[in-house]
Fold this sequence. Notes:
mainly beta; four-stranded antiparallel sheet; 11 strands; 0% helix
Amino acid sequence: xxxxxxxxxxxxxxxxxxxxxxxxxxxxxxxxxxxxxxxxxxxxxxxxxxxxxxxxxxxxxxxxxxxxxxxxxxxxxxxxxxxxxxxxxxxxxxxxxxxxxxxxxxxxxxxxxxxxxxxxxxxx
Length: 124
């Protein structure tokens, strides 16, 4: 009953920046954690970043720490991922998700709803 739509993906050169956005609609609630995951061709889906309900804190994959920043707007039920200093290794389909818990989680099993994904391609 919850729909998530990502936007902001595209093609950039290494070292560039992109800002991804995720909009939630339906009977969603802002009381739960939200997160970003990505999946590259031939690879399993991996955790990127997560943010909890107010006071829940944030989590980042080691590969993106210092380069990516996650944020959320609990009034509009939106979430963003600011990606700086992009590398070719960041190329993947990025999906947003709404969690089942209040605190930020790095595990995909802790998320109940998923968006369709947006492609991010970083050229060398």
